[in-house]
Amino acid sequence: MTWRALALGAVCVLLVSIATPYSDLVMRGTWVGLTALPISAVFLLAVLVVANAGLRRQGRGLLGGELLVVFCMTLASAGIASFGLTGLLIPYLAGPLYFATPESHYAEAILKHLPAWMLAPGASAAKALYEGLPEGARIPWAAWLVPLGAWSVLIGAVYLVFFCLAALLRRPWSQEEKLVFPLVQLPVEITRYQTDHDPLPVLMRDPALWIAFLIPFVLHTINGLTRYLANMPTVNFHRIDIGQYVQGPVGGAIQPLWIRILFSIIGLTYLLPSDVSLSLWCCYFFFLVQQAIAARLGYVMTSVQAYPVREFVGQQMIGGILVFGVYTLWSARRHLRQAVRAAFSGAPADDRNEPISARGAVWGIVAGLLIISAWGMAAGGGFVRTLLLFGLYFVLQIVAVRLVAQAGMLYIQHPYRPLNLMLDAVGTSGVGTSHLPTLVMMDHLWMLDNRSPLMPAVLQGYRAAEAGRLPQRGIARAMALAVAIAVPASLWSYLHLMYTHGGLKLNPWFTTYYTNTLYCQWTARLTLQGQPPHLAAFLPMGIGGLTMLGLLSLYRSVLWWPIHPVGYLMGASWPMINFWFSIFVGWLIKSVALHYGGARFYRRCIPAALGLILGEFVAGGTWVVVDALIGMTDHEIFSF
Question: Per-residue pLDDT tens for 187-238?
Fold first, then answer.
């Protein structure tokens, strides 16, 4: 851990935090801050490795460990400027004020229940944010200090829990269960040099890497050029709708059903255990079969909020997720018990090589939960209700991070969330109408579109540090520094862009859809119309929980059982709707490689799998840079 690595990492964090909002809002192109392995982090690392080659020839280049520190810092910060925080927070603070009209009833349904300190500083500030500043006016930075300062308390508490949970789970998952952590294999390998004087890492001297690299890079380059050259042919592998060929009730029930060829997903799947990848696409079709049978029986299937996922599917998934979350904690009980004893009784714990001491991690979680609950109470959500909401959320986050570490999922979206459970159990009257606007805002900010939260990045940073033989506590401090830089920098960038351009002229997905279509409209309906308890929802939840228990039992006790329980956790969620075909292809390629070439041939092809990931991510990052320099907008190379 060197000062130049920290300084360079800080510069990269600042660059990503300022540039990502510009890419999302103004350019409306490829989302570079999305997922647990963001394009921006991989692209910057690749650029640094290539630029570092000349310096290493002169003996002045960065060491592999220093590059890995820079990557971990960028990884921890990349999502904050997008779906991880800022991309949703600012519109949530201003949208209820701006979109409130006599017809919408937002004033009586939402605004009267929210304290002024947790919203934008007045209707005029919200109007300027969405319509742009009047000529000669200046951005009211001072007025935003109160709401952003208040929200920083909650953000800091949530992030504290993330860091501490990840620290407690690192050893059980990485050293005891030896999960594969597929997303960090590429960064680790392209920062691994044979000697201190080699210009390029060992991986980047392997021809298999570059052959595979060229496949996605060339195809994305061809499709990227079509935006500039009208006669350039396109290669359609982005989305091929095969659901259109299935007619009738069954066809409607299994929509959307499409093929998407994502080379990075194929490469990541090749790195997974075969039973895990098999279970992912098999369980996806297991849920599709359920939907088809329900349609044939005339069952009316409603979808969950915001996603094309059937409600009963989401309910089964949440039942399985909660059972698996308890199982995960139970599996790590020995390590967790030692940490709790160290915290409350002063018992010794072997935590010298941990990112955070056992005592510090436990007390950090306790302090974080208390601060979160107190903040929720001050904001009108109620202490116990907020504690229940976030307690369930952190269990779901543990499962989500497990899916990243074990199944290589780029992102996880739970279609059924803790607030849905609370409403099903007691309805809006039980939750309390006055508490709902605050609870729904916290639910939507942290839990609705969970594509780039911090906790997966933190745990992957710990794992990368272990693989690169870096000090765990040093990497924890480096990532904490990255977060401390990313939050204010991305908030500044977001406010500057919205005030300068006017939010209505920017990407409506960020500035309007979440705050108005999802948060405001759903909250107004809940508070004005109410929602009774829906105890029948606990039947599919129970089925999902029992199914998960059965899968866990079979997987642990029957040697030939081929389906891993993690496949059921992903179900027919939005990521699997997009990833299933690429996962199937990756599983098939690995199966063929092992069957005909054996373990040695499989290992020889790993650089090619990493090349597919690198080629797709570098192509996406390259086109974002090119489009930014030329001024091209609405140019999406690919999406997840």
Answer: 999 999 998 889 999 999 999 999 999 999 999 999 999 989 888 888 889 8
Residue 453's Cβ-side half-sphere holds a number of Cα atoms within 13 Å equal to 32
CA dist 17 and 79 (Å) reads: 9
Compute how many other C-beta atoms are within 10 angstroms of the C-beta atom of residue 558: 9
Q: Is the pLDDT of residue 57 over 90?
A: no
Report the alpha-carbon distance of residue 150 to residue 146 in Å, rounded.
6
**Residue type, position 392, single letter:** L
Provide the token pair at 509.
């997905």
Residue 281 and residue 587 in contact, taking contact as beta carbons nearer than 8 Å: yes
Q: CA nearest 371: which of 145, 147, 153? A: 153
Amino acid present at 342: A
Q: What is the pTM of this model?
A: 0.96
* Contact between 42 and 617 (Cβ < 8 Å): yes
Distance, CA of 339 to CA of 356 (rounded, Å):
11
The answer to whether the beta carbons of residues 138 and 160 sit under 8 Å apart is no
Structure tokens at 561: 């059982």
3-state secondary structure 265-327: HHHHHHCCCHHHHHHHHHHHHHHHHHHHHHHHCCCCCCECCCCCCEHHHHHHHHHHHHHHHHH
List strand residue ranges (DSSP E) for 206-270, in order. 240-241, 258-259
Cα 198 to chain centroid, rounded: 35
List b or e across 331-370, with b for residues whose CB sees 16 or more CB atoms inside 10 angstroms: ebeebbebbbbbbeeeeebebeebbbbbbbbbbbbeebbe
Amino acid (one-letter) located at 551 = L
Does residue 450 carry a pLDDT above 80?
Answer: no
Q: What is the rounded CA–CA span in Å between residue 511 and residue 173?
A: 38
| CA–CA distance, 271 with 404 (Å, rounded to integer) | 13
For the residues 59-78, what does the mean pLDDT come to? 96
Q: What is the pLDDT of residues 322-368, one digit of tens each?
A: 999 999 999 999 999 999 999 998 888 888 899 999 999 999 999 99
**DSSP label of 207:** H
Ranking 64-68, 241-245, 598-602, 612-616 by mean pLDDT, the lowest is 241-245
Identify whether the C-beta of residue 39 lies closer than 8 Å to the C-beta of residue 444. no
SS3 258: strand
DSSP category for residue 634: S
- Decide if 460 contacts 90 (C-beta within 8 A): no
| Distance in angstroms (rounded) separating the CA atoms of residues 66 and 74 | 13
- At 133, list the tokens: 């500043």
pLDDT of residue 411: 94
Put residue 498 in one of left, alpha, beta given phi > 0 → left and psi -120 to 50 → alpha.
alpha
Strands 240-241 and 258-259: antiparallel
Q: Which residues contact 422 (CB under 8 A, 6 or more apart)?
A: 385, 388, 389, 430, 431, 439
Q: Residue 543's pLDDT is what?
A: 98
Q: What is the pLDDT of residue 451?
A: 86
Nearest Cα to 19, choosing from 501, 451, 628?
628
Rounded CA gap, 177 and 169, in Å? 11
Tens of pLDDT, residue by residue over 88-111, are: 999 999 999 999 999 999 999 999
**Percent of the chain whose predicted confidence (pLDDT) is above 90:** 92
The contacts of residue 559 (CB under 8 Å, 6+ apart) are none
Cα separation, 457 vs 455, in Å, equals: 5
Q: Could you tell me if 401 and 455 are in contact, meaning their C-beta atoms sit under 8 angstroms apart?
A: yes
State how far the Cα of 273 lies from the Cα of 590, in Å rounded to an integer. Answer: 9
